[in-house]
Amino acid sequence: MGRSHMSVRIRIRRHKVFLLCLLGICVISFLHYYKALHNISLLQELSSSSTHLKTLKMFSGIFWSFTASDFPSQQDLYKHSYLKARTYSNVILPDPPDGKLHERTFVLHDDSTPFFIHTKSGALCFREGTDMAASTSHRRLLQHHKKKNSSKDDTINAGEKVVQCPCRQGWHGPHCGIPTVVYHSNLPSKLKVTPRKVPRRVINAININHEFDLLHARFHELADAVDVFLVCESNFTAYGQSRPLYFRHMILNGTFDYIKHKILYIFLDHFPDGGHADGWIADDYLRTYLTKNGMSRVQGLKADDVFLIDDADEIPARDGILFLKLYDGWTEPVGIHMRKSLYGFYWRQFGTLNILSACTVDMLFKVYKGDGILLRRRTYYSLSGFREYENSSGRILIPWAIGSPIHYAGWHCSWCFKPEGIYYKLISAQNGDFPRWGDYGEKRDIRYIKGLIRTGGWFDGSVPNYPPTDPKEHMYAPKYILDNYKKYQYLLENPYAKEKH
Ligand SMILES: *[C@@H]1O[C@H](CO)[C@@H](O)[C@H](O)[C@H]1NC(C)=O
Ligand SMILES: *[C@@H]1O[C@H](CO)[C@@H](O)[C@H](O)[C@H]1NC(C)=O
Ligand SMILES: *[C@@H]1O[C@H](CO)[C@@H](O)[C@H](O)[C@H]1NC(C)=O
Ligand SMILES: *[C@@H]1O[C@H](CO)[C@@H](O)[C@H](O)[C@H]1NC(C)=O
Ligand SMILES: CC(=O)N[C@H]1CO[C@H](CO)[C@@H](O)[C@@H]1O
């Protein structure tokens, strides 16, 4: 009796403490936010979908309802959005009944898509690159001139000299499967490549922070070329602070249902030793963990499958990756020449960014020790396993790159966010790429950021002279972005171009 009496008292006391705490937090936040916040809508957007407890919802309602005349210290602002972030991650959507997202495995299967077809005349043509109407009339011609029965068997024979596939514009080679970005690349063996009977499987690994628009663009661009996307998210920013698992939330709430069957979710739940002092450690570690954890959960790997690692803002064009999937005879490691732009696709920078991004699974493990960060460095020839691997491959391995300085084979869109996203990137940036602009209050100011977007300027005060661009240009932006022009207009046209300053 006395016992239960006491526990009731304790419970009441706990209640009191809880209410007091809640009241305290309310008052503190009221003071802090009285003159603030209206403009940091990203964090609001990102956390609004969480199903808060009723009280917490009202509570955050208070947070967001003030209109701002000026900003408080942005660092304070972050601390509190951080507090909100905690609230957000307290209402984590549960893992689906069939297992934890970050513990699942992915089983690779051969892709049975009929990328190539046999024409009636017996030629093997890449379906998409071949002008089938022309092929029919062409076939009649061939039959007319051919007396013999050319009883070709099913083997894909590179030695075939008869060119029987009439190629569409943009496709080359006897089977019309070589895209322009490979045809005009520096691949030494490009005239000797041959279609495979069974496509390679392509594994695309990326780390994600808050680049969700570019992520949708990637998924749509590469949906039929890539077999599995390894996507790694951490509950730490590269700077070492806590962040909610936005991507996990969006997988579970249905945002990525169209591609979910190809995503393997990787969760990095710790921050590397030394990552605070030296941000490059944190930066590299993300790729190391992504590759090691991700690849250990992929089953059915074959030595000649393709491993492709990108940053979230590097989107390879689909045709080049499809070539790697469908053809034999290219060398490795493989780079990609990407169109470079800043804040959106409208501030195009000169030249291309050529990043070593792909190799076979065999090379990944034998030369790069299963670590994706080593692939991105250009020092493969000095790695201990390289000579042996090269010897076993029976060919000289020199790197080549899809595309060329004038044929874009992808897009590198830096800092391509709305102003709030740029703000968030600034405060999440690793502690190593100095100067770290996120450390300067004036550089985090939303009005300042808008000014940079308007002029194409950089945080160091420079304003490069970018050439004018036009969304109708070839390879201006990924197809999905262009196809949804209104939705992604902020990436396609300078949103502040008309604003006076
Ligand atoms: C999923 O969550 C995101 C981020 O909070 C939100 O923007 C989106 O509307 C949500 N989608 C659905 C279908 O609930
Ligand atoms: C041509 O091939 C068809 C079937 O492939 C066969 O029935 C026919 O007898 C062949 N004709 C000659 C002349 O070899
Ligand atoms: C990240 O997640 C791990 C595992 O759930 C947890 O132990 C750790 O405290 C989390 N870190 C942050 C900063 O939320
Ligand atoms: C290269 O391969 C050949 C056989 O293919 C072998 O005899 C030779 O020892 C190898 N050399 C090295 C350096 O691994
Ligand atoms: C500080 C700042 O950028 N304030 C802006 C907040 O947003 C409103 C409209 O949404 C602007 O009028 C303010 O200038």
UniProtKB/TrEMBL annotation:
<dbReference type="InterPro" id="IPR006813">
    <property type="entry name" value="Glyco_trans_17"/>
</dbReference>
<dbReference type="Pfam" id="PF04724">
    <property type="entry name" value="Glyco_transf_17"/>
</dbReference>
<dbReference type="GO" id="GO:0016020">
    <property type="term" value="C:membrane"/>
</dbReference>
<dbReference type="GO" id="GO:0006044">
    <property type="term" value="P:N-acetylglucosamine metabolic process"/>
</dbReference>
<protein>
    <recommendedName>
        <fullName>Beta-1,4-mannosyl-glycoprotein 4-beta-N-acetylglucosaminyltransferase</fullName>
    </recommendedName>
</protein>
<dbReference type="GO" id="GO:0003830">
    <property type="term" value="F:beta-1,4-mannosylglycoprotein 4-beta-N-acetylglucosaminyltransferase activity"/>
</dbReference>
